[in-house]
UniProtKB/TrEMBL annotation:
A Pfam family it matches: Methyltransf_11
Annotated spans, Disordered: 222-249
Domain of life assignment: Bacteria
Domain Methyltransferase type span(s) in chain numbering: 63-158
Organismal lineage: Bacteria, Bacillati, Actinomycetota, Actinomycetes, Frankiales
Keyword Methyltransferase attached: yes
Protein name: Methyltransferase type 11
CDD domains for this protein: AdoMet_MTases (cd02440)
Swiss-Prot/TrEMBL keywords: Methyltransferase, Transferase
Biological process according to GO: methylation
Length: 266
């Protein structure tokens, strides 16, 4: 089910265009996860085994929102989970099918928008995304949908770039900077330099949105890259014009966050 909002149409078309490049550029991390089952979160590839965000997955019904190449869902099959991969882009799903054919791992893949999830209420034990649909879908539609399809006691976990990162992105750039450029209180749907529309909210608005959907916040993780190996006490200064994925920037400021939320038992 794909809703017809302008940002959803834009993101579907754009993800179809950039999917082959995205899969090629990220192939080392994607293929490592698919073929070893070692799952890691976000820009800094922090292992799930260290963070323990999802916890036990064996026998759990799991929905991955914005699964891309399906590396997370593949790894969860290896761990005894029952994932379904959902994505807006047919080209991303094509890559997911190709990788699944290479490994022989099978799990359902569906084309849909996180803003109109085609599953009944209380269908899943875990709903999650790693820089997936929650980074692009309107949070005021995607969070209620995730809460709706979760069973009581279920876990919603997702990562996205931090609101602080977002407000330092200068016009025409797709990397953070060291000056505030965008309006913090204007965060919701943001036209990015690469043609995508990204989604984010002020921290307080995220928190009220979770509360309005009866989700209890268990944690907000702010992963950072490891310190420089040579001398862990001296931090490099962040460059004035960092590139995307700049480690010195992300040592000083939060580049991403991972929410861990619980739907209470009734
Ligand atoms: C940055 S990619 C991440 C994919 C995967 N988690 C990874 O780490 O490679 C974001 C994914 O979200 C998908 N997406 C964007 N908007 C979406 C929406 N409204 N509903 C479902 N998926 C969406 C895109 O098609 C894309 O595959």
């Amino acid at each position: 089910m794909i809703n017809n909002a302008a940002h959803v149409r834009t993101n579907r078309a754009r993800w179809n265009e950039i999917s082959d490049d995205y899969q090629r550029l990220n192939a080392p991390q994607i293929r490592r996860q698919v073929f070893t089952g070692d799952i890691s979160w976000g820009l800094w590839a922090v292992p799930e085994s260290r963070l323990g965000v999802l916890g036990e997955v064996t026998g759990r019904d799991i929905l991955e929102m914005g699964c891309g190449g399906g590396q997370w869902s593949s790894a969860l099959v290896r761990r005894g989970g029952r994932p379904i991969g959902l994505d807006l882009s047919e080209r991303q799903l094509h890559h997911s099918r190709q990788l699944a054919a290479e490994t022989g791992l099978s799990f359902p893949l569906i084309q849909a928008s996180a803003e109109a999830v085609p599953f009944a209420d209380d269908s899943f034990d875990i709903v999650f995304a790693d820089h997936g649909a929650f980074s692009f879908a309107d949070p005021f539609r995607a969070v209620p949908e995730a809460a709706r399809v979760l069973r009581p006691g279920g876990l919603l976990a997702f990562s996205h770039v931090s609101p602080i990162y977002e407000i330092t992105v200068a016009p025409g750039r797709d990397a953070p900077g060291s000056r505030l450029t965008r309006d913090y209180f204007g965060l919701r749907l943001l036209a990015e330099a690469d043609g995508l529309v990204s989604a984010n909210l002020p921290y307080g608005t995220w928190i009220r949105l979770f509360r309005d959907n009866d989700l209890v916040i268990e944690d907000l993780l702010e992963p950072r890259p490891a310190p420089p190996a040579s001398d862990s006490h001296s931090e490099e200064p962040a460059p004035a014009q960092p590139e995307r994925g700049d480690k010195a920037w992300a040592r000083r400021w939060p580049s991403e966050c991972i929410w861990r939320l619980r739907k209470p038992t009734r």
